[in-house]
User: Fold these one by one.
Assistant:
Number 1:
Amino acid sequence: MPSGTFHFPKGFLWGTATASHQVEGGNTNNNWYKWEQEGHSSHKSGLASDWWGGRWKEDIDRAADTGQNAHRLSIEWSRIQPSLDRWDVDALERYRQILRELRERNITPMVTLHHFTDPLWLSELGGWETNAVVPLFGNFTRKVVETLKEYCSLWCTINEPNVYALNGYLRGIFPPGKSDLNLVIHVQANMVRGHAAAYRAIHELQPEARVGYALHFRPQKPARSWFPLDRMMRNIKFEGINMAFPSSISTGVLQSPLGRIPVPEGKGTQDFFGLNYYTMDTVIFDLRKRSELFSRSFFPHGSDLADAGMHSNYPEGFSWALTWVAKTYPNLPILVTENGIEDSTDRIRPRFLAQHVHAMWRAVNFNLPIRGYFHWSLVDNFEWNLGWTQRFGLWGLNPDTQERTKRPSADLFAAICKENGLSSEMVQKYCPEVFEKIFPG
Ligand code: FCB
């Protein structure tokens, strides 16, 4: 039986990612709180993973004890700026403490400035629909960076602007629950402008900073590559879901099947590419699906599906995504800002993890400039519209008792982080069912 270890370059970042509203609890001053109270989500976030109550400390101990050397977390705008005319210095101090303690544990922090939530006062002003958000987000960024730059130089301005806009303004499953094609690109254009304002503000305050955003990148392939209508539908979906931000940053013009908006201030505003990859879709032309522009996305028969069938374990899609990024932005460092799978029993996660780390190792060996990997997530947390039905954590959580339970994947990830690589022994121990795929004899 073959044996060996796939090592990563020295200094590779290994960690997990979290987001304020999903882990902190008690965030009662943002648009998601209101949305939950109105009954739009499956559950309420409540205490979430109780980080604001102090449990961040035990969770970052877990990260440190298991060899993680990086952590991506987000700052809750509604805590820092509870109303338009007020900054909360205690909240800022709390985040300073968290970052300081991450540093003390040799964990490099990456801070996200916007991860889906908006302060209520901002929503009342029109949220990302109003152009006023651009300078407001710039000011918020300044305040945060002035306070936290002592401990952080790796910044993610906005998480998944495409998901924010599509879910909130087309599918209506995120606040504000609208369905208006014009608003989708208008909101995305303002997010590009906000991102660009933040990019410049950060560099002014901290010239050595590395700044980017995190794109939810969902590759698609045509169900029948010989059939032009499948290919056409695949291209429309690919562009519509993925391309608004990348086109703005590359060319200064936001291009999407929904329209075209010049955003010259966005051009060139990224120091790394933040990639969130979960799964890949197969797209087929379907005359019956009028509301979905005559196409349907699905996972083919025999796919390696997670609990709720929402994600398929598809590491080839990850390879495809990494190659796409490297071709689109030659030489730009790549950070995998999220990758993970919902799996309460840890049935599929060990092989998901091993196969994705293996795909990433192959990409590194083709000289793709990948610098780090953040697994989503450290501990189970509140999964937006799906509430507590989705379990993405390396540690399980009972939200009622706040009890944590380590899943086997946490040990596998610890072994990977400590070794800075993936070994045949690890695969043999945690997911022997894919040994042949990763170490063919
Ligand atoms: C991503 C989000 C993150 C989490 C994971 C499962 O789209 O950025 O907050 O919900 O999905």
Number 2:
Amino acid sequence: MCGIVGYVGTSNGVPIVLEGLQRLEYRGYDSSGLAVAGSSGLKVHKAKGRVSDLKAALPKRIKGSPAIGHTRWATHGAPTDHNAHPHVDFSGRFAVVHNGIIENAPQIRERLVADGIEPRSETDTELIAHLIGQAAVEHDDPVDALRTALRRVEGAYGLAVLDAQHPDRIVVARLGSPIVLGLGDREMYVASDVGAIVRHTRQVVHLEDGEIALLEPDGFTTSTLDARPVQKVSELVDLDDEQFDLGEHEHFLRKEIGEQPEAVERTLSGRLDERFSTIKLGGLNLEPNELRSFKRVYILGCGSAYYSGEIGAQLIEELARIPATAEAASEFRYRNPVIDPDGLYIAVSQSGETADTLAAVEELTRKGARVLGVINQVGSAIARANNGGVYIHAGPEVSVASSKSFTSTCVAFAMLAVHLGRIRDLSPADGDRLIQALRDLPAKIAAILEQEDAIKEAAEWLAQYDSAMFIGRVRGWPIAREAAQKIKEVAYLHAEAYQSAELKHGPLALICETMPVVAVVPDDELNEKQRSTLHEIKARSGQILAIGHESFPEDLAERTIVVPRTEPELDPILLNIPLQLLAYHAALALDRDIDRPRNLAKSVTVE
Ligand code: F6R
């Protein structure tokens, strides 16, 4: 969703901010803008569409420092030039970029109008600019003015503000929406996502909720909303600039699907403990006796994170024999859930920013629940709101549609399930069996990726249809859901996911020669039953693409993709890989905007 970049220092901030905005494009946006403060005041430029449209609209000679920029994903007001950020206050002194949502915007607007200030856009951000302008009448200092303005604001924000009267400063604030500062040599950076600035510096400081920072070329100072000074310690981020580049690839989605063998290696790294036939997970912050005491596990996440949670729940039930369920965090938070005092709650999120998942964690924590995170983004809001957890270390995921983070999350759940199992009743022999299978996963994923030509051919076949059915049973069911979502998301092809055995209770009526069926059919204890379903589909002229193991009978499906065997509990991890490539190639065949699917954003920071 929205993104912020800013620079203050001795270089020209304009190209730095523009390049940072391009790094944030993956988050999804519909307009962008930039402001520079100089001796002649503020210069503000905005454009609907891509950052390239903004670049094209900029005067050739624009340059300067400090500069701030923004990519906007419309919430209050349509995606127009007018509503794009930065927004300038009534006095022309302050320019503001903002991520998040101001909940009391209607009341603020009413007050401003009563004070004779007529907002020019439909945004909530412009209102903040005016509040700062009003506060500056009494407090000339921009930090004090921002602090006073924010006292009138309810909602979530990550903010960066330029002050024309101090053209060597940026003031930033955070409440519920990430802000990271980057430290350079006589220069400072700010961004909502470290990926936007990692090319320039890896020395960063994460602002906490309720903190304000003043950035000047020589450094920064931080304080709280109630003016208490805060000392911050910088940290070195372990990110490679290359991870944000396409390299030889045409799309980030394809690049990230291809990176899965290494991503899984990183997820496993240092955690397989052969000596005790278990998995070491250092960040759980729970003693074995505490982990033994939980009677249920509840997993929460959104979209693909939720589906990976369904796989996690199955793994925990199978391996640790603890009843476990997964639920969409977006539903959970609104149904006034009864908190199980004997339950272990787990929040799943790649970005660690998803508003619904964060709100679910906050609700749980408020009610005294024990919450762990399974998270990719180190230090993210959800990671910090939890009591502990497992980082998946998949590396940065730029494509809006998740691939490697899904796989690494499932691997992290498999490790957690073995860990929980081994302090309960999972035998050392089973621990060894699963450790070996986990160790073999990267090579097996690489072998599946080598079948790309056959999968591409299947994808081109699928792309001819308007609609498709994805079916699976038990271990294959979350995979069918994930695959149907992926095909909707990147190929814009209508897809339904159904439990194979449920077909005959209704959707079988849809099966005919124009409704292809993609069936996830591992060679497990349910294989026979699945085959019966496929016979029923064939009998109704359904066309089948089966994803299974080499024992799958050739005559039962028009097309078959075979994945290597692993231990049955881990089958879903491998079965999903060809389905990612299937969605990618269907999208390619249909000429979709694969890395920026319409209407979607990478980090869903609004409800
Ligand atoms: C689908 C996809 C989304 C995310 C969901 C949660 O490909 O990426 O469904 O899984 O928006 O995002 P995170 O994991 O960042 O909380």
